[in-house]
Structures are given as structure tokens and as C-alpha cells.
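Reopening this one. Same input as before:
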Amino acid sequence: MANKRSMNMKLLNARLTSKLSIVLFGLVLVFSAEAQSGPSRGGGGDPMGGIDLPPGFLEQNKDYKFPDDITKYTATDFLMLVRRTDIRSSFYNSDMSATISMVTVSPDRGTKTFKQQIFRRDKDDAFLMITLEPESRKGQGMLRVDNNMWRYDPTSRKFTHTTIKDTYENSTVTNNDFRRWQRSIDYSVEKISSGTLGNYNVIIGELKANNDEVPFPYIKMYIEADRKIVLKVEEYSLSMKLLRTAYYTQYVQIGDSFVPTVQIFQDGLIPEKRSQTTYTNISTKPLPDYYFTKEYLERVSQ
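Same output, byte for byte:
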């Protein structure tokens, strides 16, 4: 398997092979099949969102030398590793659009499916998402721009302010899951270790949020050492209760970016509650500036 781990691979399939992840992924596929058949600036924004990236955020990462031995990683090394995963999973040199297929499962709401079209401009931390399916939700939208996030209901024709903390459609997905990754901005490293996850050697970091805008105050990241991609993130409350586990089971390379195209979010308190989002039709073609406006969302939602 080692010969398949080259960073120059055009297609990365990071399937977790531990028993837990296989069972979880299998369950989500089953539910998918069933669904087929039947300092803050205020305004809800994050303190370092938008254009204001930390100085050297992109440049310092390019030539950073990571230890060859994963047991030698320091907190600084791990934070730079997280930064690399942030940058490589995002599109700072182009716009991005994609289709998102989502399956949500919960004991009280059953199985639901959604399809959305998303448009992102990561250099500005902006995105627009429009619901395509189901028909009852068609035209509903979400817009993040200028460090504000809005939901739009085409029936009432009203915008409602929301935050990146809020959940999407009462699922295990948060609004934060749709934006660019910026964990190296929002968190500080408290502890690191090494281990394995399935057949993969991983570096494990425990991080604490440095602002109160993010959905989870503490997270624990499992990053594969060879390919330097995120495989799993455990997300905790202030009291260190596990609230959610995120699995990133498939990646695809597009240009210099490595996009997690299959993402599974497992509720930490209700084991039967989970969601899967799958990204397809990914494009890096330039988008018009007017896409990231309330006026355009109103028009396209009709």
C-alpha cells in the first residue's frame, strides 16, 4: 500500500480501514440507499475570517520542513501541519463550485436527502449555497459574505441572520462545514501524540479554540503522516464531552488542492444520528462577483 501514498497522486482514496470506520461508512451507505428509495468583529463573523488571514499564512507553509519521525513533532510542527491541511483543502487561487448530496439520519426525523449547489471564494471566506432538492426546500439559500452569514427563505422573501455554529437542517452538519478549512487560525495546539488509525500512521493533536465563534471549543485531529490529510476529527464541548466525530473518507486532487469529497458526521450523544455529504461536479472556473450578494440569492431562488 505504501506505493499508493505518493503526494502526486491525481486521485486519493483515503478509506479508513479500522473496524469502527468501516462499520460507520457502511451504515451511512445503507441509509443512503434507503433514502433513494423512500477578537470578534461582531455580526456573527469569525475574528480572522474574510480576507484578513494571519501574516504569512500561505507563504510560511510552502517551505516548512516537517520532522521525518512523527514522534518528533512539536506543537509548532503540528500547527503548521494543520495549516497545510487548511490550505490544501481550500481554493485560495481560484473560485470553486460543486454539487453537494447530503443524507441525514436521526431517530426522530428519519432519513432525509438534500441536494445543494455551492459557490465558494475562499480568499474572501465567502460562499453561497442554494438548495435544489427536496422540492419543499428548493430555492432556500445560505450566504456568507463580509463576515456575516444569512439564510434566505424564498417563500417569505426574508433573510435571517445565522452563524457558523448553527446546524444545517437539524442534522449533524454545521454551517461551518461548508466554508474553507481554517482550523490553524481558530485553534491552538495543546497536546500531540502519534498512533495508528486503521492501516495509517497518524499524528494526533488536541486543540483548543482561541475564539468563541467556532462550533466546538476543543477538537482532536487525526492527520495521516504520509499524505498529510485529515482522516478524523473528534469535537468536544467545554466539559470535554464528545459532541461529534467527523470522518473524511475520500479525497480528490484538483490542481494543488486535495478536497475531502466524502464527509461523515457522527453525533457523539445520539449514536443513531449521522450525516454524509458528498461533493461532485467540482469546478474551479471563475465566478462573477455578484454571486456573493443578497440580490443574486433573491433572484436565483425564485
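So the earlier flakiness isn't reproducible anymore. For the record, The first helix runs from residue 19 to 37.
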